[in-house]
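Suppose you are handed only these lines of text.
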Amino acid sequence: MTRELSVVIPTFNERENVEPLIERLITVLDGLSWEVVFVNDDSPDGTADAVAAIATRDDRVRCIRRIGRRGLSAACIEAMLSTTTPYVAVMDADLQHDETLLPRMLEAVKPGAVDIAIGSRYTEGGGVGDWSSERAAISRLATRLGRMVIKADLGDPMSGFFMVEQHAFLEAVRHMSGTGFKILLDLFASSPRPLCFVELPYTFRQRHAGESKLDTMVAWEYVMLLGEKMFGGWIPVRFLLFAGVGALGLVVHLAVLGGLLKGPGLSFPISQTAAVIIAMTFNYFVNNVFTYRDKRLKGFGFLRGLFSFYAACSLGALINLAVAIYLFDAGSPWWLAGAAGAVVGAVWNYAITATFTWNSGRTKG
Ligand code: GDD
Ligand code: MN
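From them, the structure of the protein bound to guanosine-5'-diphosphate-alpha-D-mannose can be written out as follows.
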């Protein structure tokens, strides 16, 4: 019998959950032809080794190790792309998702009328178990925001538990952003055609072992994903963030300049120089935390990044001046010349620092 189902499990520090999860899959998928693909982002607890130990005796178990990268959605996409089965499920490792839904999901997608079956907490019969009222409220708010970027009327667009038909996934994958936690939302928002779906209710369980990786930064990544899906078609969201941080930097610049002139009464050149350096350093910090959260530089890379940022922005300032002076001399009004210089400088700074400061693939997550 050719294999028909792959179950993708993203993991980061989930060693204690690997074996119980595989045991449950073996029970519930009995009689089907399936595989499970764990995708681990080099977590220090040895999750990948725990998977590998089982994989040596059970060839339904596979392990993908990603090094130097972090991110739930991106990890899932990579693991999904490694499968060749007609149906692919995605499910968390911590036993919060009800694995007994898997055979029913398969029954739902197999006849071909629907592209995707979704485990839903917010459909009649589903639930979130005993969540704090705060977490439940945040989840509801995020759900409402999520519905704004997808055309489908999903009860639980934030679900991380679903089974999709391979072709439907492949049609969408090139448009997916892979940012953050919300892979289902990304899939729906990226599919070139509306996906036919069915939602199956289940109750979200308590995490088995280990801790949740959902933190405030994950919420920030969610905002970025929504932005990408709303505006990303024409302007990269990262550029918008970068430009926003730049505007904030200007405020910092003026505050420092004014402070040094009026406070200690330093000369204009010295105050201006200090303001430039402080504003650039401020921009670097903020961009490193927010704009490039997923490629955040640390340790030595952080220092190297700081100096490449200084270098890129200094050149950007010269280009800004050159463009502005050229336009002004050619008769443009001062505000147009000034704004054009600033925009060209910002685009330059963005493009150069994206490559040389936060170069993807060379950084540690
Ligand atoms: N490879 C990889 N890389 N896996 C990760 C990463 C990562 O950076 N971050 C988290 N994971 C894995 C975890 O090990 C776990 O198996 C799964 O992704 C979900 O992470 P949790 O930390 O358990 O998240 P949660 O329970 O708070 O969130 C779940 O519920 C949300 C709905 O409230 C997830 O299913 C979300 O997708 C879902 O939106
Ligand atoms: Mn969890």
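What can we learn from it? The radius of gyration is 25 Å. Residues 361-365 have pLDDT under 50 and may be disordered.
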